[in-house]
Every structure is written in structure tokens, then in C-alpha cells.
Design goal:
The protein is 67% helix and 0% strand. It has one domain. It is mainly α and 107 residues long.
Length: 107
């Protein structure tokens, strides 16, 4: 959140749909990492991640109409597994960076 009013309350920044699509496009089409895109647009990484997930969900919902119920269930399970694996990978990356900063060797 950014900005403040005279009463000291934080106000939520609002972004146009076009801005959100462009931000997601940096990641999905131009090869930016979430962190790079967030830094370049001055928004938090989680904001772009949420926009990307919503964008992917809406595209997948449109494509999922030709899938059977069992295929949809399996696809949803795989997406969830993929999300968890990505999260674990990010945690391991941060751990590796922290170990490097402390001068320990990790291979």
C-alpha cells in the first residue's frame, strides 16, 4: 500500500486493467522475473504474482471447457502441485543466497 491521507490512513493504490495486463506481459512474454517486473513498475512482487495467477486462471477457464471432469480435476491438482513446487524453489533460492552471504559454501 502506498499513499496516505491527512488522517494518516494508508490508501490502496489502484491500477488499470491495461496496466495489470502489461505488467503480467513483462513476466509471461518478455522474460522478466516477477522480482524484476515488480521493481521496474514499483509494485510489490505479490501484486504481480496475483495478477498473473488471475490472468492464467481466466485463460485456463476458457480453455478448460473441452476437458472432462476427471481431466479438470487432474489439471487443478497439477497446478496446485506446480504452485507449491515454485514456492519451495523460491525458498531454497533465498536460503542459498543467505548461505552465500554468510560465507558458507553450498553446492
Amino acid at each position: 500500500m502506498s499513499g496516505s491521507s491527512s488522517s494518516g490512513k494508508q490508501t490502496r493504490r489502484r491500477y488499470s486493467d491495461q496496466f495489470k495486463r502489461d505488467a503480467v506481459g513483462l513476466v509471461t512474454h518478455q522474460g522478466y522475473s516477477l522480482t524484476e517486473a515488480a521493481r521496474s513498475l514499483d509494485v510489490h512482487v505479490s501484486v504481480i504474482r496475483n495478477w498473473k495467477e488471475k490472468s492464467m486462471d481466466s485463460k485456463n477457464e476458457k480453455q478448460d471447457t473441452s476437458l472432462s471432469e476427471s481431466e479438470r480435476t487432474e489439471l487443478q491438482r497439477l497446478r496446485e502441485e506446480n504452485r507449491k513446487l515454485r514456492m519451495e524453489r523460491e525458498i531454497l533460492k533465498k536460503l542459498r543466497q543467505e548461505v552465500r552471504e554468510r560465507g558458507m559454501i553450498m553446492r
